[in-house]
Amino acid sequence: MPLQELVWLTISLLRRVVLRHWVKHWLKTLALISVVAIGTCVYLSISLANRAATSSFESFTESISGRSQLVVSASTGSLKTDDLIALRRALADTEAFLIPIIETVAARGQSESLENRSYFPLVGVDLLALSNLLARYQTNSTYWNANSQSDQTIWDTLRSPNAFFSERLIAQTESWDKSPEVTFFVGERRVELTWAGSYPKPDNQPDRGSSSLVMDWEDLAALTGRQGEIDRVDIVVPNTSGQQKTWTEQAISHINNANPGHWIVESHQDRQRTGSTMSLALRMNLRALSYLALAVALILVFQALETAVTRRHKEIATLRALGVSPRQTRILWLAESALLGGVGGALGIALSSLVARFAIGAVSETVNLLYYFTDNATVSFLPGEAFAAWGLSIVCCFAAGWHPATEASRNPPAQMLRRGSYASTYSKFRYVVAAIGFAFISYAAWLTPPFNAPNGHAIPIGGYLMAISLIGFAVASACIALDFLGRITGFIGNWSATLRLGLSPFRRPATRHRLALGGVIVSVGMTLSMAFLISSFESTVRNWIGSVLQADIFVGSKAMNGLYSNARIDPNTAQALLADPDIIAGGVLQSTTTRIQEHPTMFNGYDTPYLLAHSHFIWLEEPDNLANLSRGPNALINESFAQRFSVSQGDTVTLASSNGPVEVSVLGVFADYGSEQGSIGVNGALYQKITGDTRIRNIAAHLRPGAALNEVLERWRSDYPGLQINANQSLRNETLKIFRSVFSITYALQGIGLFISVSGLSAMLFTALLERKPLLDALRRMGTGRRQIARAALTEGVALATLGSLVGAILGGALGLVLVFVINKQSFGWTLDVSIPWGQIATIASSVIGCAALTSYSIGYIISGWPLQREE
Predict the structure, then answer these.
(1) Cβ-count burial of 713 within 10 angstroms (0-12 exposed, 13-18 middle, 19+ buried)?
(2) Residue among 174, 193, 168 at smallest CA distance from 182
(3) pLDDT tens, position by position, 493-537
(4) Residue 707 phi, psi dihedral angles, 5° rounding
């Protein structure tokens, strides 16, 4: 048949056969499309959230001065004014603009709870240099006329040390355009800043909802006590006469020749790659979960199409008798599969615009805490990204419909017209072979070494493969066990006719039974495995917090919003707090970022006498003498650092500084769960020598016996309003709150998994009872009541849900062990204590069984009340 005729025939059959069936059973069709939409929505939402998180690491000056071609930063800590002078000299003969930048965070909100505080990236730039750049190359709008409602000039702004700029959209949202005097917490201070107008953007770009604020860099340095320090220098090379590439290459050459050894020179692409690799493990595991959610949804598609072939066998036979060829029949079923994917995928894309807001918020919150501060991330669809998600939905549904389409085209019309059994076409031997095969793959995956990841950790390819093969093994084993449900029918038949009737379908279980069982197993297993991981993580973190948080009072900056925040406390403030007569002992922690093997990590300065008096570590490799930390160039590293950089006790690590490289010897390795990036710490004096920084990150204080904790807290909070001052217990609670918020998106995925499992089971029961409608009618004519039929349906549903929950719980435990000991260890470098969530196992299993009982009884009761079919 010519291709054109085949296409028109397929369209005609779709309209007359498929769409008619969809309209007739519109509720079931809507449910199936919704399940596909949920899978697509989860996949696309996580993709959008991952992209939003990484794009927030872009150089800030992109939004106000155009894309910078190069970024220069320090390998450890900050650049100094001498570095800026050296850069200017190196690029004196190059067409390039240097924009020195200082970055910090401004906070709003008086509450001591982090949840009730708003954070704004606060960026200090050279306003004069930036205005010249904008006026000369980018746009006619500069900082001279930023506030059209004011006669203030750039000179007035520069004379006002507390002036800041923002997007007009955020100013209107916060009412700064009406009341420009705004109170912020910056560093350790509470300051009054004045909104000076909206900052200009190249090519008059529209506002994108950015929460970033701009000040003159010298004013911000004075506010934060960082005079003479620079976080980075953005270098903009204008495209003068089409020579941008040439000028950029020359700039790189000049900078490299002048590099004293502690400069990190990155292109725009390199910097984007740095941000992407920092959160690689988080995004990779979220993406794996999104694929799993999509796979569970596709099990239901396969089940529905397999059932449709069974239910419409007469219709298929009639089409075959009228001359529709096996090939055309197969194309018709595949077209229906693709149509399901197309409609469900389109709906999923539409839903993702709503769900992505939650996903982006959850992912951004995690990134803020563990990696870097993200600007207000907004939902932005890229046409290619949405089209790829839509195409993936179609391809997956097409693949799910391949076997049902083959089955529909395989049998001759005479055989399909017979009233036959709808039992599975697969023998038990095939499931045995499949189980053995998956077991072998699981063992091979266990032996598979991880691949090196760009972030310095590893990609647990073997762990992912083991998880997939364990799922296959569990499903195949459960399909074998399903036959035993039918075997026990004869033993309990004398006890209850209802039980016998309810279990009778399992004597020859249909394919849909196995598919529904697989859906329950995968969903319950996936949900419980995440619960297993979270429980183990929370138990480990609780023990860790108990070791680390020993002081009575902990002090930090209110502007500190995450691990990599650079909000600090003046050492004089720390000295004054620890000299309080109610304080008997205390210590401080200093920290900044450094680069090891081109990967960012934390560099800490320890108060060694305090550590000797109050042990804070859970040792994995304990030092022979911790006092050696202050007796030479020695260091302590955490577990993530050790794995990421392949370092152990006794090895040497080289740290770059403005005074030249410093080699330190590793004294010990300790467990730490603050960041996967790792940390290395030295004595405070050595830290200050390497970084030149005396500022404090945290203060820990111990009260003298008899001192009133609440009185000290109230006095300190009154005297130092810019400091975050917490008692031990409140900080523990706050830390656990943060921990739970990190897993907020995981909790949502757990709910989606349970919804999909119950939906699949309900769809299977509804279809099974519809197919047995003649049998149910016969039972009703013999006097069987509606409630008895409903109880029989309840027995079938509960039996299937119970078996699925039992196998799913076992699978969840196995997957949990893989997550804890393989995927988590290789991705993040953390060793976790195993904690089995017995309560969640019971809750999830009882929820699935309870929902199955409710829906199966309701479906049985409703269908048994439909009018009896007449016998022809």
Answers:
(1) middle
(2) 193
(3) 566 777 777 777 777 777 777 877 887 888 888 888 888 988 898
(4) -70, 145
